[in-house]
């Protein structure tokens, strides 16, 4: 055991974040079928290869006419048109419309040349005479009525979606509309997850005295998915530095980053804390002025990032959200990789203070159009508490200089993602 393990230099959260950011660059690009692109991050900006709509489109079921023909139409004076064509969706018109003629047309069909208006079915009267179809109108029709012009939504060459956008329903429609069948996206970073702790049992194992089940690996797995990463589970290892070194070797070889949980404090068996001090490691930090998660550690090993998060579930959760999540987002070129900051009103007073910034797991409440945040548990917000993670949708930021914060005061929160895979 080295003395360096005890004497750590604490850095501010923002400093720790910049040290990590300096090591991160956007990952490789791959092409995925459109149907598989939900939640992925677009890697190349997409421009419109054609205008949209691509042809003059009817907005109604009715008749395409020349509006000038209706100049004399009034409730007392019908104007008659001979119907010379019928245009369902998906067909191109066969005839040019001339004065006194009209074409039956359906919603979404291409408007024929020669016309400048579509009149709704319901506004017309219809008759058959000697095998010919005629319609009459009793009112004037404006030029352009019910015709969607070419390029109303999008002009050719216009930027449609910027690189770095996360693909959702709206983006899927755009990509489909413009024929992007294979979408260029950033590869999901492969994230190795392993837990350290001789006390850890597999989820299926029965409880034993002094032991607990490994919950952090599964929590981290979910967080990785949510951040757009691909989790790779390496299970749990006993508190042995040689085992940890071997596991790390394997994990770093086959993945883009490695996240571990446990063993980063100063206990006799805190092996990750020791491992990151070894010569082959480039330590970025091993103490941060925050709680929970003050022992959060990051290092570079073989050009890849290693995050050694605390074993305490609350600290592990906060450490991931402040440091690992932004890394995974930045690796997918997200322009806003950090958690969103909101200013809200504190629901219940928060009395506990200490010399580090505290990130209290909390939940937001919307009342009378205002946003409040309440600590997720009224009793404890200890680093070791697991049960409140599921009740949190934000981290309430309690600055160290404050002597507690009273209910009704403004506080900053960091909004947590809402749980679905991005
Ligand atoms: N003398 C000191 N003791 C401690 C300090 C300190 O500065 N000086 N820091 C405290 C703080 S703060 C924290 S946080 C913890 C950090 O502990 P470690 O990161 O070293 O984690 P472990 O010792 O391995 O475990 C802590 C706790 O978490 C449980 N655990 C571990 N892994 C998992 C898992 N995968 N799933 C669920 N729970 C897990 C473990 O059983 C322990 O109860 O240290 C303080 N001590
Ligand atoms: O690392 Mo600890 O979580 O500050 O309580
Ligand atoms: Mg420990």
TrEMBL record:
* GO molecular function annotation: metal ion binding; molybdopterin molybdotransferase activity
Q: Which cofactor does it need?
A: Mg(2+)
Q: Name one Pfam family in it.
A: MoeA_C
The record lists the organism as Paenibacillus amylolyticus
**Family, similarity comment:** Belongs to the MoeA family.
Keyword list, A-Z: Magnesium, Metal-binding, Molybdenum, Molybdenum cofactor biosynthesis, Transferase
Cited function = Catalyzes the insertion of molybdate into adenylated molybdopterin with the concomitant release of AMP.
Protein name (record): Molybdopterin molybdenumtransferase
Q: Which reaction does it catalyse?
A: adenylyl-molybdopterin + molybdate = Mo-molybdopterin + AMP + H(+)
Span-the-membrane segments of this chain are none
**Where does this protein act, in terms of pathway?**
Cofactor biosynthesis; molybdopterin biosynthesis
Q: What is its EC number?
A: 2.10.1.1
Cite a single GO BP annotation: Mo-molybdopterin cofactor biosynthetic process
